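Sequence and structure are kept together here, with a separate record for every protein. An example record follows, reproduced without changes.
>
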Amino acid sequence: MYTNRSDAFEDCDLAKVRAYKFLNNRSTMLKLLPPTEPSYRLHLQRAALATIIDKTAHVAKPQLPPFVDYGWALDDGKLVPVLSTQPAWPQTIIAQAIACGCSKGCNRNCSCARKNVDCYIGCRCQGSDTKCSRVKYACKS
Protein backbone atom coordinates (compact mmCIF):
# COMPACT_ATOMS: atom_id res chain seq x y z
CA MET A 1 0.00 0.00 0.00
CA TYR A 2 2.83 2.43 0.80
CA THR A 3 5.53 1.22 -1.61
CA ASN A 4 6.19 0.84 -5.33
CA ARG A 5 7.14 -2.38 -7.03
CA SER A 6 10.65 -1.03 -7.56
CA ASP A 7 11.20 -0.62 -3.80
CA ALA A 8 12.76 -3.58 -1.96
CA PHE A 9 10.29 -3.81 0.94
CA GLU A 10 8.92 -7.35 0.76
CA ASP A 11 9.64 -8.25 4.38
CA CYS A 12 9.91 -4.81 6.00
CA ASP A 13 8.02 -3.54 8.99
CA LEU A 14 6.15 -0.25 8.98
CA ALA A 15 8.94 1.60 10.83
CA LYS A 16 11.45 0.96 8.06
CA VAL A 17 9.00 1.88 5.31
CA ARG A 18 8.04 5.03 7.26
CA ALA A 19 11.69 6.06 7.63
CA TYR A 20 12.40 5.50 3.95
CA LYS A 21 9.31 7.43 2.84
CA PHE A 22 10.14 10.35 5.11
CA LEU A 23 13.78 10.61 4.09
CA ASN A 24 13.18 10.15 0.36
CA ASN A 25 10.07 12.25 -0.16
CA ARG A 26 10.17 15.82 -1.40
CA SER A 27 6.70 16.47 -0.02
CA THR A 28 6.28 17.69 3.54
CA MET A 29 2.83 16.13 3.90
CA LEU A 30 3.37 13.94 6.94
CA LYS A 31 -0.15 12.52 6.62
CA LEU A 32 1.12 10.53 3.62
CA LEU A 33 3.53 8.54 5.80
CA PRO A 34 2.53 5.07 6.94
CA PRO A 35 1.69 4.80 10.64
CA THR A 36 4.14 3.42 13.16
CA GLU A 37 3.66 -0.23 14.07
CA PRO A 38 2.28 0.51 17.58
CA SER A 39 -0.09 3.15 16.19
CA TYR A 40 -1.32 0.71 13.57
CA ARG A 41 -1.92 -2.03 16.16
CA LEU A 42 -3.80 0.37 18.45
CA HIS A 43 -5.96 1.45 15.52
CA LEU A 44 -6.75 -2.20 14.76
CA GLN A 45 -7.72 -2.76 18.41
CA ARG A 46 -10.10 0.24 18.33
CA ALA A 47 -11.56 -1.02 15.04
CA ALA A 48 -12.09 -4.46 16.60
CA LEU A 49 -13.89 -2.87 19.55
CA ALA A 50 -16.11 -0.89 17.16
CA THR A 51 -16.96 -4.17 15.41
CA ILE A 52 -17.83 -5.81 18.74
CA ILE A 53 -20.10 -2.88 19.60
CA ASP A 54 -21.78 -3.01 16.17
CA LYS A 55 -22.31 -6.77 16.38
CA THR A 56 -24.03 -6.44 19.77
CA ALA A 57 -26.15 -3.39 18.89
CA HIS A 58 -29.30 -5.51 18.91
CA VAL A 59 -28.72 -6.59 22.54
CA ALA A 60 -30.31 -4.37 25.23
CA LYS A 61 -27.42 -4.55 27.73
CA PRO A 62 -24.45 -6.17 25.99
CA GLN A 63 -21.42 -7.46 27.88
CA LEU A 64 -18.65 -5.35 26.37
CA PRO A 65 -14.96 -5.90 27.07
CA PRO A 66 -13.01 -3.18 28.91
CA PHE A 67 -12.27 -0.36 26.49
CA VAL A 68 -8.79 0.10 27.99
CA ASP A 69 -7.88 -3.32 26.55
CA TYR A 70 -8.74 -2.08 23.05
CA GLY A 71 -6.60 1.01 22.47
CA TRP A 72 -8.35 3.44 24.82
CA ALA A 73 -7.23 5.06 28.08
CA LEU A 74 -9.01 6.90 30.90
CA ASP A 75 -8.04 10.56 31.26
CA ASP A 76 -9.92 12.51 33.96
CA GLY A 77 -12.78 10.05 33.74
CA LYS A 78 -13.05 10.30 29.93
CA LEU A 79 -12.05 7.73 27.36
CA VAL A 80 -9.39 8.96 24.96
CA PRO A 81 -7.64 6.96 22.21
CA VAL A 82 -4.06 5.91 22.86
CA LEU A 83 -2.21 7.23 19.83
CA SER A 84 1.06 5.34 20.25
CA THR A 85 3.24 3.61 22.79
CA GLN A 86 6.59 4.31 21.10
CA PRO A 87 8.29 7.35 19.55
CA ALA A 88 7.25 8.20 16.00
CA TRP A 89 10.84 7.98 14.76
CA PRO A 90 13.37 5.14 15.25
CA GLN A 91 16.10 6.19 17.68
CA THR A 92 18.81 4.41 15.67
CA ILE A 93 18.09 6.57 12.64
CA ILE A 94 18.04 9.79 14.70
CA ALA A 95 21.60 9.04 15.77
CA GLN A 96 22.76 8.76 12.16
CA ALA A 97 21.11 11.89 10.71
CA ILE A 98 22.84 11.29 7.36
CA ALA A 99 21.86 9.45 4.22
CA CYS A 100 23.88 8.87 1.08
CA GLY A 101 22.68 9.57 -2.43
CA CYS A 102 24.31 6.49 -3.94
CA SER A 103 22.13 4.33 -6.12
CA LYS A 104 24.55 1.45 -6.63
CA GLY A 105 27.54 0.01 -4.81
CA CYS A 106 28.15 2.74 -2.20
CA ASN A 107 31.92 2.45 -2.42
CA ARG A 108 33.13 5.68 -4.04
CA ASN A 109 32.00 9.12 -2.88
CA CYS A 110 29.53 7.61 -0.42
CA SER A 111 28.77 10.04 2.43
CA CYS A 112 27.97 7.12 4.73
CA ALA A 113 31.38 5.57 4.00
CA ARG A 114 33.14 8.90 4.69
CA LYS A 115 31.42 9.14 8.09
CA ASN A 116 32.12 5.42 8.77
CA VAL A 117 28.39 4.65 9.06
CA ASP A 118 26.70 1.71 7.36
CA CYS A 119 24.01 2.49 4.78
CA TYR A 120 20.42 2.00 5.95
CA ILE A 121 16.84 2.27 4.73
CA GLY A 122 16.96 6.07 4.58
CA CYS A 123 19.70 6.15 1.95
CA ARG A 124 18.93 6.34 -1.75
CA CYS A 125 20.27 2.79 -2.10
CA GLN A 126 17.62 1.84 0.51
CA GLY A 127 20.22 -0.24 2.34
CA SER A 128 19.28 -3.06 0.00
CA ASP A 129 21.82 -5.86 -0.15
CA THR A 130 21.29 -6.04 -3.93
CA LYS A 131 22.12 -2.33 -4.41
CA CYS A 132 24.59 -1.62 -1.61
CA SER A 133 27.66 -3.21 -0.07
CA ARG A 134 27.29 -1.26 3.22
CA VAL A 135 23.96 -2.62 4.50
CA LYS A 136 23.06 -2.16 8.18
CA TYR A 137 19.25 -2.12 8.49
CA ALA A 138 18.27 -4.50 5.70
CA CYS A 139 14.69 -5.69 5.64
CA LYS A 140 15.36 -9.33 4.89
CA SER A 141 16.84 -11.35 7.70
User: Anything to note?
Assistant: Residues 137-141 have pLDDT under 50 and may be disordered.
